[in-house]
Predict the 3D structure of the following.
Amino acid sequence: KQEVTQIPAALSVPEGENLVLNCSFTDSAIYNLQWFRQDPGKGLTSLLLIQSSQREQTSGRLNASLDKSSGRSTLYIAASQPGDSATYLCAVFGFQKLVFGTGTRLLVSP
Amino acid sequence: GAVVSQHPSRVICKSGTSVKIECRSLDFQATTMFWYRQFPKQSLMLMATSNEGSKATYEQGVEKDKFLINHASLTLSTLTVTSAHPEDSSFYICSARTGATEAFFGQGTRLTVV
């Protein structure tokens, strides 16, 4: 059974800092990995999708990496802003299932 | 990206009644749809996976008679919470995809059972 864990569970940083969110998964037989953000009481916004054959993806200030063999992915956020405050979720797509991580609640203070 | 429309966004119902939530892929055909449940401050828990034209596959611990899932077409899946009780109050989100591609999510349904 795939288990996805995110560390840290919560993170509070001042504006402008670069930060790294971690995601680990137990079964490396995945098709892809996706990072999302979720604002309180809202649905999910897709940030980045990494196919299993890829090592990283970038979008603006976000960079996600994938090391399938070690079961790890990181989301790097450069020059954080208060608007980045949200919960960040990683999700891995394995055999017909998309399994979510435990989430990281990020607070960026002005 | 592709659009997944989930309706209603909020619903309040009386205990013992049934509630239907719809999930539509608006501009693509979804061979697979997933239904998730999210409790406050927790992550999304997969409830079931449905493929068009076949019965849904439920995760362990999810009552299939309580949470009825129908995936009658490539663009529509429905989740019916039958005989709802206050403990069924939660945030329900659907996801649609075609093959091993990016997953697209509806905006979720906040269900409150009173």
Remarks:
- The CA atoms of residues 54 and 66 of chain A lie 7 Å apart.
- The mean pLDDT of chain A is 94.
- Chain A touches chain B through 21 residues (CB under 8 Å).
